[in-house]
Specification:
Distance between the termini: 43 Å
Oligomer: single chain
Number of strands: 20
Largest sheet: 6 strands, mixed
Number of helices: 11
Shape: globular
Radius of gyration: 23 Å
Structural class: alpha+beta
Strand content: 25-35%
Strand order of the largest sheet: 1-4-3-2-7-12
């Protein structure tokens, strides 16, 4: 699935999933205006939920995607921004404080404070992907949004840090290095998706973004315009497809087609027409009883969907943050296109649910499956926001190298 409109591109974004590689190349001006010049989706292998399990296969997946891009735009790609599945990523809260020398909070004091907080992760088994200053303290005063210019003795900050396994990140960066490409930045997939689909009100008033992937289901929680938690569970769309394949004794490819064409997350269907399995499994020696009703198919799907949502709800309840967010859940990812998924999530969470469609960037061909491009559209938007001199929600770290956010340069 490839579309080319221009060869003048200066930013490349990749989302490497368990089953696909989504890629966008865009031309982003110095003032943050963007136009998509290339988009494609290709098959991926060797990577499962953000973890490389076959280095050679993963390398080939990346090489094929980049080769097609370079051939189409007639330009060498030197660096990319990538989104990483939630697998192996975790949220952690830390508190750091420093004594003020001058007594008045300066930009350098805030920079020093955050840097000292992140120092604890140096030479550790984890890498900082994102960090979010949630609130500051100044002596006995808590919940300060911006302490710049205030007077006090001890400045503190509670920081939300998103971590990833250093070895996993190193493997991914090494895989790109084998292709002679450097990784500009790594962004957690569900966070990248949030940049593309959440409204400002949803980020400010509070919401949950659920990203249904093929091998994992990731979630990000927002409140007060900040990402306050991100997590994942190791179940996704492939598990639903696998259940169908096992119960009906058909291939995964046929099961996926069956799910997409006739599947529903609800336990019943209004369609009474029987589905002939031989139409999906060509060459198989099915007998005359090899058919299934849409309702029976929906029951297979519903059992797994209910399990995934119940586990997700259990993880959410453990956080105890429901009072901080609004009654809104936004669904994204390939699994969000499953019929009835919105109703199942709404019933279990008892919240308003909508399917999140990313904001379209000029030049993007929306005729294709837009949900497959949500994360990479978020990466492009993130770069646009940086160039517009309006700070993004957080700063990203390209693996082992931790950078000080432009938030300190421009956002204070």
């Amino acid at each position: 699935m490839i579309k080319v409109k221009a060869t003048n591109t200066n930013f490349t974004a990749l989302d490497i999933g368990s089953s696909k590689v989504s890629i966008l190349a865009a031309d982003i001006s110095p003032i943050g205006d963007a136009r998509i010049g290339y988009q494609s989706i290709s098959h991926s292998s060797g990577i499962r939920a953000g973890e490389i399990f076959d280095f050679k296969q993963a390398e080939n997946s990346i090489i094929n995607a980049i080769y097609n891009l370079e051939k189409s735009i007639d330009k060498r790609i030197n660096n990319v921004s990538i989104s990483l599945s939630g697998m192996g990523c975790k949220s952690l809260y830390i508190y750091q404080k420093i004594r003020l020398i001058e007594g008045k909070v300066s930009k350098n004091d805030i920079k020093t404070l955050i840097s000292k907080g992140l120092e604890r992760f140096e030479d550790s088994s984890v890498s900082v992907l994102h960090y979010f200053p949630i609130e500051y303290t100044l002596d006995q005063n808590n919940s300060i949004n911006n302490p710049l210019g205030m007077y006090g003795n001890v400045l503190g900050c509670r920081i939300h840090v998103v971590l990833a396994d250093s070895l996993q990140v190193s493997n991914l960066i090494s895989c790109f290095a084998k292709c002679h490409i450097s990784v500009k930045e790594i962004v957690v997939g569900s966070y990248a998706s949030s940049l593309a689909v959440l409204t400002e009100d949803e980020k400010s008033l509070g919401s949950v973004l659920i990203d249904f992937g093929s091998s994992t289901t990731s979630y990000s929680i927002f409140s007060g315009g900040q990402l306050i938690f991100t997590g994942f569970i190791p179940y996704g769309g492939n598990h639903i497809t696998s259940d169908i394949a096992k119960v009906l004794s058909i291939s995964m490819q046929s099961a996926e087609k069956l799910k997409v064409m006739y599947g529903s997350a609800l336990s019943s269907s209004d369609n009474d027409n029987m589905i002939n399995l031989s139409e999906f499994e060509h060459g198989a020696n099915f007998d005359y009883e090899s058919s299934i009703s849409p309702t029976d198919l929906s029951m297979i799907i519903n059992a797994r969907v209910e399990e995934i949502i119940e586990i997700l709800k259990s993880e959410y309840d453990k956080l105890g943050v429901d009072h901080l967010i609004g009654r809104r859940i936004v669904l994204t990812g390939g699994g969000s296109s499953l019929r009835g998924i919105k109703e199942v999530v709404s019933t279990n969470f008892k919240k308003q649910v909508r399917i999140g469609s990313p904001v379209i960037i000029p030049g993007f061909d929306s005729d294709h499956t837009i949900q497959s491009y949500t994360s990479v559209l978020g990466l492009v938007k993130n770069e646009m926001v940086k160039l517009k001199k309006s700070s993004p929600f957080s700063e990203s770290s390209t693996g082992l190298i931790q950078k000080i956010s432009s938030w300190f340069k421009e956002g204070i």
